Structure formats: structure tokens, C-alpha cells
């Protein structure tokens, strides 16, 4: 019975981990198709789900489905973290995983409650919370969990996971730094380094967790 339960969990981790990126990509592509004159090279992904965006309904729907898959996989990984990384040398890695889960829940709830009220930043209270509270908190948590998982992974021999976390945090830095450096017409490109890095890392950690379950 226990083995069957574990089997179901590991398959859910794999499926949800992959589908989270699939639906995020769909919300970006299909949302842009339903937003006349949307320029993905210049505009942020969050413009697609802004309150006044013509693509809000379909983009938010796809994004919410992806968010559900993300929260499922993150919660399962959190619950089974001690089973996946049981050694005392992996404690730092596990702490990083717990912060990784917290970040995704903050993102799912925060952005759901406080979407942009208009494309770009319009100065409203809701947009201020979206950009300067939720986004800042998500970025800080992302940096901390990535560093902890990378350092903990290298120390405990989980090098694949460590490298994935390191690449993820470097992409976040590239996106954050690049957004303020590149010309406005290329803002959307570098901004996507940050937004896609978290989703891709979620898929990576889901695949790694699935592989560890298969080895057990």
C-alpha cells in the first residue's frame, strides 16, 4: 500500500512539474495572441494578466492552471523532502527546498490577489503591491532558496540539483539587471529570463525528485 502511494506521488511530481511550465508558456503565447499590438520583446509577461488587458481572461485562466500544478508539485516535494534528501549533510538543501515552496505559494496567492491594474506600472496601490511588495519578496526568496540549494547540493553531492539552482539564480540576476540596462524595446526579453527561470527550475527539481524515487 505504501509503495503504491509513493508511486502515485512520484508520478504526480513529474507530471505537475512539467505541466507548470507548459501552462506558463501557453499563457504567454495564447495571451499574446489575444492582446492586439502586444510586443513580447518590449512588454512584461504580467501585462497579459493586467486588469485592463484584453487577454486577461484567457491568460489568467492558463496561468492559474499552471499555478495549481506548481503548488501541487511544490507541496509534494516539501512533504517528501526528508525522504528525498534524508542525510544530515543535506539539511541546508532541504531548507532551500522549503523556501522554494514558500516562494511559489507567495507568488500564486500574491499575484492572484494583486494583478497589475494596467499594462506596465501605473502608480496605483494595487500595482505598487504587485511590483514593489510581491515581486520583491518573490525575488528575494528565489535568490535565497537558490543559493541554499546550490550550496547544500554541492556540499552533499547533489550536484545536478545544485547546478540547476545556480543556473536559475544567475538567470534571475540577468533578468533583473538586464531590465534596467537594455533599451525599452528589449525589456520583455530580459524580463522573461527571471519569470521563466523559476518555472524551469520547478520542472528540473520535479524530474530530479522523480529520479530519486525511482532509485529508491
Written account of the structure:
- The chain is mainly α.
- The protein has one domain (2-215).
- The chain has 7 helices and no strands.
- Helix 1 (2-33) runs antiparallel to helix 2 (56-79), helix 1 (2-33) packs antiparallel against helix 7 (187-215) and helix 4 (91-113) packs antiparallel against helix 5.
- It is globular.
- The protein starts with a helix and ends with a helix.
Q: What distinguishing features does this structure have?
A:
about 220 residues; mainly alpha; 7 helices
Show the helix and strand layout:
Layout lengths: L1 H32 L22 H24 L1 H4 L6 H23 L11 H32 L2 H21 L7 H29 L1
Helix pairs in contact: 1-2, 1-7, 2-4, 2-7, 4-5, 5-6, 6-7
At a glance:
By secondary structure, this protein is an all-alpha fold. Helix content is 76%, strand content 0%.
Provide the number of structural domains.
1
Oligomer: single chain
Name the structural class.
Answer: mainly alpha
**In angstroms, what is the radius of gyration?**
18 Å
Instruction: Tell me the distance between the termini.
Output: 16 Å
Amino acid at each position: 500500500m505504501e509503495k503504491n502511494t509513493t508511486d502515485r506521488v512520484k508520478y504526480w511530481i513529474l507530471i505537475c512539474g512539467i505541466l507548470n511550465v507548459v501552462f506558463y508558456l501557453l499563457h504567454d503565447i495564447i495571451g499574446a495572441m489575444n492582446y492586439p499590438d502586444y510586443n513580447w520583446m518590449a512588454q512584461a509577461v504580467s501585462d497579459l494578466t493586467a486588469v485592463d488587458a484584453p487577454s486577461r481572461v484567457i491568460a489568467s485562466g492558463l496561468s492559474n492552471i499552471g499555478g495549481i500544478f506548481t503548488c501541487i508539485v511544490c507541496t509534494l516535494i516539501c512533504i517528501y523532502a526528508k525522504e528525498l534528501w534524508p542525510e544530515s549533510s543535506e539539511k541546508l538543501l532541504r531548507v532551500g527546498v522549503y523556501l522554494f515552496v514558500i516562494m511559489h505559494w507567495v507568488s500564486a496567492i500574491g499575484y492572484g490577489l494583486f494583478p497589475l491594474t494596467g499594462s506596465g506600472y501605473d502608480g496605483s496601490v494595487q500595482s505598487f503591491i504587485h511590483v514593489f511588495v510581491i515581486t520583491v519578496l518573490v525575488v528575494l526568496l528565489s535568490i535565497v532558496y537558490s543559493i541554499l540549494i546550490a550550496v547544500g547540493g554541492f556540499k552533499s553531492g547533489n550536484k545536478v540539483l545544485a547546478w540547476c539552482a545556480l543556473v536559475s539564480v544567475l538567470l534571475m540576476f540577468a533578468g533583473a539587471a538586464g531590465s534596467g540596462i537594455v533599451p525599452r524595446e528589449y525589456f520583455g526579453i530580459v524580463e522573461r529570463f527571471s519569470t521563466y527561470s523559476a518555472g524551469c527550475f520547478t520542472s528540473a527539481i520535479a524530474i530530479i525528485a522523480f529520479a530519486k524515487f525511482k532509485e529508491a
